[in-house]
Amino acid sequence: MTQRTFPRSFVWGAATSSYQIEGGWNADGRGESIWDRFSHTPGKIEDGSTGDVACDHYHRWREDVALMQELGLQAYRFSIAWPRILPEGCGQVNQAGLDFYKRLVDALLEAGITPVVTLYHWDLPQTLEDAGGWPARSVAEIFVEYADLVSRELGDRVKHWITHNEPWVMAFLGYEKGSKAPGITDMAAALVASHHLLLAHGWAVPVLRQNSPGAEVGITVNLSPTDPASPSQYDADAARHFDGYMNRWFLDPLYGRGYPADMIADYQQDGYLPAEGMPFVQQGDLDVIATPTDFLGVNYYSRAVLRSDRVPEATNEPRTIPESDPAQQTDMGWEVYAPGLYNLLMRLHTDYQINKLYITENGASYSDGPNEKGVVRDMRRLHFLYDHFTAAHRAISAGVPLAGYFVWSLFDNFEWEQGYAQRFGIVWVDYTTQQRIPKESARWYSRVIASNAVSAELPTL
Ligand code: IFM
């Protein structure tokens, strides 16, 4: 069978995040995070659940690393729970928390698995939210102290650092829409938060480099290629705006272009920014944000199809709206659209000339569980991954410097405001017994890793 082989140095891994899998929410001196507060607030999480126990990884990390080794993972991307290390956000260090991550990193290295550490995957210490959260510039300064501490402690062993995961989600779902912690609905505050997240990243880069010689340092953004729903100029403008909101608002400043002028104008028009622009951007901030990094982490799940809600009643504009086929959606209701990954990678390569890219998350939520033989035949996830790996291979062949791929997620886990109803894992988790069962997608992924290739034809089992 013809194979599509990946570059020899290509890295295959899987990803998780602290609040979604660890549990042990108040074990051994861990402080409260905004996600503890949010999930403990009635009505915030769809199934009423919390991350108090989640996959109990805090206690089961040893068997989890053994499972990663059995699957043949070459790298494991996980995040550090800031309040486990600094229960109050800064000041007093919780040694037990640091020791947990030291043991985990050592076990990974012993198993031949490269640790890829995300410093911030949304679990801000509650004390820092009480002090103003990301809309406060002081929180960005404190983030650098936290980055300094963690990289001084782990920098000899960890050589891959990601400052933030998906600052768009933190800023806009946390502070504009309020669907995620801390649950605030204030667009003006969200814009300030987005700047402080980027600033914190830029300040942290040299600190991480200093404390972790030879390390690769980057940031992970979630990006969504954006298509207009019809050839209408109104839909084209809606697509421009959404692309600016979700993609360019982060990419442009990270790659030295400052915040996009069209978006500043839109936000001024909507009253979210004052006439003078962005008064919270201080002199030198944009240079800090554009500090060169070693890679960009890209999380890709789907594209966005935009339909304007500002079309005048009487218009001759074409308005054919393609409906997304429900059979082509994951359980999240997200369209399965692998060409979007190829298009996105090509755009990053041509528009931003990024030196190195990793897909730090890609995956799908499907609820398939164990059959009577205890086998999880998650063929839709397997095909999803196959199509996206193939799209990535195509991009590499076209010259995109894609260096690795992390499947989201290693485990079924706490899917934020959706609780445990959504299952993204390649490993099934029984939340009653904490039994882990690698799904068929995981078994197939092991074979992809071992051969460093995908077949030219859709795999069957
Ligand atoms: O579960 C999340 C993850 O925490 C961040 N990226 C998207 C995933 C699926 O929603």
Question: Notable features of this structure?
Answer:
461 residues; alpha/beta; TIM Barrel; 8-stranded parallel β-barrel; two-stranded antiparallel sheet; 14 strands; binds 5-hydroxymethyl-3,4-dihydroxypiperidine
Tell me what the structure shows:
- The chain is α/β, with parallel strands linked by helices and 461 residues long.
- The chain has a single domain, classed as Glycosidases (TIM Barrel).
- 40% of the residues lie in helices and 14% in strands.
- The protein is built from 15 helices and 14 strands.
- Strand 12 and strand 13 form a beta hairpin.
- Helix 3 runs parallel beside helix 5 and helix 13 packs parallel to helix 14.
- The longest helix is centred in the middle third of the chain and has 25 residues.
- The radius of gyration is 21 Å and the shape is globular.
- The model has no long low-confidence stretch (mean pLDDT 96).
- 5-hydroxymethyl-3,4-dihydroxypiperidine (IFM) binds next to loops.
- The site of 5-hydroxymethyl-3,4-dihydroxypiperidine has 8 residues, from loops.
Quickly describe the structure.
With 461 residues, the chain is α/β, with parallel strands linked by helices. It has helices at 18-21, 34-39, 57-71, 82-85, 95-110, 126-130, 137-154, 167-175, 187-211, 233-254, 261-269, 285-289, 339-352, 379-397, 440-451; strands at residues 3-5, 11-15, 75-79, 114-120, 160-165, 216-222, 226-228, 295-299, 304-306, 357-361, 402-408, 427-429, 436-438, 453-455. The protein is globular.
